[in-house]
Design brief:
There is one protein chain. With 104 residues, the chain is an alpha+beta fold. It has one domain. 43% of the residues lie in helices and 26% in strands. It is built from three helices and five strands. The chain has a five-stranded antiparallel beta sheet with strand order 4-3-2-1-5. A hairpin with a 4-residue loop joins strand 3 and strand 4. Helix 1 packs across helix 2. The longest helix has 20 residues.
Length: 104
């Protein structure tokens, strides 16, 4: 693991801690879960769960393999570091979820 990747994980954990006021250990677990999920999605299709804004749990099948360039090329909006974009293979569309709401 590179120092840059570890730095991003820690930065995300501190961001979660500031937003929620939760214990840092819980925020660090969520940051690691996000890192591991993105790593797996870059390799292929992954099943994962997250909590939707309305409080329900959603099962998703998504990937980032061969789609990251499409995300960056087609999106002219400002980047939001609290949201993870992925390609939903069930509906063949891009979707997103709040990184804080990942269920690990």
């Amino acid at each position: 693991m590179k120092a840059n990747q570890l730095s991003k994980i820690m930065e995300l954990a501190w961001q979660f801690a500031k937003q929620t006021g939760c214990e840092f250990s819980e925020c660090l677990k969520k940051a690691w879960a996000n890192y591991k999920l993105v790593s797996k999605m870059k390799a292929g299709i992954v099943r994962f769960y997250f909590q939707k804004v309305d409080g329900t749990t959603r099962e998703a099948w998504g990937t980032l393999k061969n789609v990251e360039t499409k995300i960056q090329a087609n999106d002219k909006r400002t980047k939001n570091n609290t949201v993870q974009v992925y390609f939903d293979t069930e509906v063949n569309e891009f979707r997103c979820f709040k990184k804080l709401n990942i269920i690990y």
